[in-house]
Design goal:
About 40% of the residues lie in helices and about 20% in strands. The chain contains 11 helices and 12 strands. A hairpin with a 7-residue loop joins strand 6 and strand 7. The protein is globular and about 55 Å long. The two termini are about 20 Å apart. The chain binds 1,4-dihydronicotinamide adenine dinucleotide and magnesium ion. The site of magnesium ion has 2 residues, from helix 8. Magnesium ion binds next to helix 8.
Length: about 350
């Protein structure tokens, strides 16, 4: 079987960690008997500075021909913050209806976490973030702008259909894991949105009697997540709360170097996109210091999404094997370069 993969390396360490992921994917295809056909796309801050192009209908049409998208990172100090986030990443999520942002929060053995006493057994959860609606629809207005009476109104849009598809996904995932689903919101204050979210969770939940339901306010989540992550199996939440608590999740699991993510299109109408959660890290770009494990684990999620579960599990196991040998996850103290780490993971994928 051959899969066609679009590769968007982007800026800074994006191309470096993407190269690492491609090395590991190449090893996996030899070992597990499928083949991957890669097509590179130039996009991101450098591309934008050169051409003025961000997301476009033409690019969307080309990307649609692929089975999945492997994404590095975008960003450059020369591009004003927000241009690429809204002009490319949010645009892709919305155009390709990537309804779910999937973020495993897993502490791997040997990885240093800032949470004292935390063990891998206690930290294995998945955050399911709604990825196309909420406060990120970009709707709002400012009344009396540039006056002492300015009022900025930022809307959060929550549709039953949008919530339902994410909640259905979260229940299915929970049913396949430890059978516990937590809704994270702020329904005591954001009463309109909170009511609809809880209603949908209760409705879908009636079809999943085996899944235990829980509710946690987002502020309380910021306390419980680092202190007792074992309380959570699958957490479902809206776009804004999800953006915030997934960064907290990354801290708990040992930092940006290891955290992976998927932006999933659930109905097969467009490709899903897979990326490490870190940015372009201009401070360490070009030095060979970037940890490629987040990108490698994202590539494993890509294979799992395509149905190559065995290869995905082998890559995860190999990454864990290499992580255990790394004294530091990033920076000048790292004993292995980006390339050496990727080579070591690839080697374990083929020999295990
Ligand atoms: P960042 O994630 O790029 O870097 C934050 C810190 O973590 C830096 O000190 C960096 O050196 C370190 N770091 C990140 N990834 C690492 C890795 N794999 N190995 C070792 N160290 C790593 O976030 P920052 O600095 O806030 O943003 C830099 C640029 O990236 C900005 O232009 C920002 O807009 C963009 N960005 C893009 C994202 C994306 O493409 N999805 C996500 C986040 C930020
Ligand atoms: Mg974020």
């Amino acid at each position: 079987k051959t899969y066609s993969i679009a590769v968007i390396p982007g800026d800074g360490i994006g191309p470096e960690v993407t190269d690492g992921a491609l090395t590991v994917l190449a090893a996996a295809q030899r070992t597990f008997g499928f083949s991957l056909d890669f097509t590179d796309y130039d996009a991101g801050a450098q591309h934008y500075l050169r051409t003025g192009n961000l997301w476009s209908a033409d690019l969307a049409q080309q990307l649609r021909t692929h089975d999945a998208i492997l994404f590095g990172a975008m960003g450059d100090p020369a591009v004003e913050p927000g241009i690429l986030e809204r002009g490319f990443i949010l645009a892709m999520r919305q155009a390709f209806e990537q309804a779910v942002n999937l973020r495993p929060v897993k502490l791997y053995p040997g990885v240093e976490t800032p949470i004292a006493g935390l063990t891998p057994e206690r930290c294995d959860l998945v955050i399911v973030r709604e990825n196309t609606e909420g406060a990120y629809v970009g709707q709002g207005s400012t009344i009396h702008a540039n006056t002492p009476n300015a009022v900025a109104i930022q809307e959060s849009v929550n549709t039953r259909q949008g919530i339902t598809r994410v909640v259905e996904y979260a229940f299915k995932l929970a049913a396949s894991r430890r059978k516990k689903l937590t809704l994270c919101h702020k329904k005591n204050i954001l009463i309109e949105a909170g009511k609809l979210w809880q209603e949908v969770v209760d409705q879908v939940g009636s079809r999943y009697p085996q899944v235990q339901l829980d509710y946690v306010h987002v502020d309380a989540m910021c306390f419980h997540l680092p202190v007792s992550p074992e309380r959570f199996d699958v957490v479902v939440t809206d776009n804004l709360f999800g953006d915030i608590i997934t960064d907290l999740g990354a801290v708990i699991q040992g930092g940006l170097g290891v955290a992976a993510s998927a932006n999933l299109n659930l109905d097969g109408s467009a490709p899903s996109m897979f990326e490490a959660i870190h940015g372009s890290a201009p401070d360490i770009a070009g030095k060979g210091w970037a940890n490629p494990v987040g990108a490698i684990l994202s590539a494993a999620m890509l294979l799992a999404h395509l149905g190559e579960e065995q290869a995905a599990l082998a890559i995860e196991a190999a990454a864990v094997g290499v992580l255990q040998k790394l004294p530091a996850l990033a920076g000048p103290d790292m004993l292995m370069s980006t390339e050496q780490i990727a080579d070591a993971v690839a080697e374990l994928v083929t020999t295990n």
